[in-house]
Design brief:
Helices cover 47% and strands 22% of the residues. It is an alpha+beta fold. It folds into 2 domains: 4-211, no CATH class; 256-360, no CATH class. Strands 3-4-9-6-8-7 form a 6-stranded mixed beta barrel.
Length: 361
């Protein structure tokens, strides 16, 4: 969710309280209790351990390497996971350090047959057996610590025990209440953890953090910038097309000077000549623009077909399409562009006098 943040340690870069720079340190379960007790704005908090090197996971004659993560019972309230089978972890699972696991959808698809019940089955991760209690599908585009669909989750206390990590955790995940400014809480969290682990208050590199709200805003402005750039390029291309069509019409009128002169001599009114030139210009612009519009639709359709590149088989693009409103806007712009392209040629045609046209011939 957008009101969440994540904190993880790094080597210190500033000498402080007798400790040299370059000191490696770790967070632990006590940090979670410290933050819970001192920051009432926190709604959910959870520790996390991860091993993105890939734990070799075996079931029967099938084996693959997946991300291996230890999570808290609260984790699914911070990173949204859709339960497809079974359940996720509860506090009793963590208290008893049960050797159970929840697997991502891709893990299920590769280790189990379609429609097979995974709950209650045993899988081996790095030689240790865990019973599957659930299958989940990551619902957010952003996954923390690896793609949830290609991850094996175990209780964080179990992972601490089997890997001899004591109370160490790799990351603290936090969600605050909706009406709270996550940026303010981020600073409080960092100050408390730095003070507890004797880290200089100015040593920002020793404690990394990021919040989802900032990342969403970053992508929002990036997308807005891409949209503006697309409009600028599109309008520039359209303007070049308008100039090209206008030049074509001017050449056409010069070649048809005699024809226009004869029509004027036979009594054709200037507005008739004007309407003809404008209609021709509008027709050329509309046909060329509509062809480009259809090409864009075909490219988007093809893009959707060939972009099945994610590990879980989903498309990298969500519903790539041209909206109805955008289509109507493009049609209006084409009509206006056609009229603009015909203005100068039409004005040139109206200035042709019958006697001059016949004399030129």
């Amino acid at each position: 969710s957008q009101n969440s943040m994540f904190v993880f340690p790094n080597a210190t870069t500033v000498e402080y309280k007798g400790f040299n720079a370059g000191r490696f340190w770790t967070m632990n379960n006590e940090d979670i209790d410290l933050l819970k007790d001192n920051i009432p704005e926190i709604q959910y908090i959870a520790g996390m351990l991860f091993n993105n090197q890939g734990g070799k996971t075996v079931r029967a004659d099938r084996s693959e390497s997946y991300s291996f993560r230890g999570i808290d019972a609260n984790h699914t309230k911070i990173e949204k996971l859709n339960v497809l089978q079974g359940r996720t972890f509860n506090y009793l699972d963590l208290k008893e350090k049960r050797k159970i696991c929840v697997i991502g959808k891709q893990v299920y698809d590769q280790l189990f047959n379609p429609g097979e019940q995974a709950v209650g089955q045993q899988i081996s991760v790095d030689g240790r057996y865990y019973m599957v209690i659930g299958v989940v599908n990551g619902s957010d585009n952003m996954n923390i610590g690896g793609n949830a669909n290609s991850t094996v989750f175990v209780p964080i206390t179990t992972m601490q025990q089997v890997n001899n990590l004591g109370n160490d955790i790799h990351m603290v995940c936090i969600a605050v209440y909706e009406d709270v400014n996550i940026k303010d809480i981020e600073e409080k969290v960092k100050d408390l953890i730095k003070a507890k682990h004797s880290i200089a208050p100015v040593d920002d590199a020793a404690l990394n953090s990021f919040n989802i709200q900032e990342m969403f805003l970053m992508f929002k402005y990036l997308y807005l910038g891409i949209q503006i750039l697309t409009w600028i390029v599109g309008m520039g291309t359209l303007l070049a097309g308008v100039v090209g069509i206008s030049n074509i019409m001017l050449v056409s009128i010069r070649e048809r000077t005699n024809e226009i002169g004869i029509r004027r001599a036979l009594g054709a009114k200037p507005k008739v000549i004007l309407r003809q030139i404008m209609n021709e210009s509008l027709f050329l612009t509309f046909i060329a623009g509509y062809a480009g519009f259809l090409l864009g639709v075909l490219l988007l359709t093809g893009l959707e077909k060939i972009s099945q590149m994610n590990d879980d088989g989903t498309s990298m693009f969500v519903n790539p399409q041209i909206s109805f409103g955008m289509g109507i806007t493009a049609l209006i712009i084409l009509v206006i562009s056609g009229l603009i392209a015909g203005l100068i040629p039409a004005k040139s045609a109206m200035q042709i006098k019958a006697i001059d046209a016949l004399r030129d011939e």
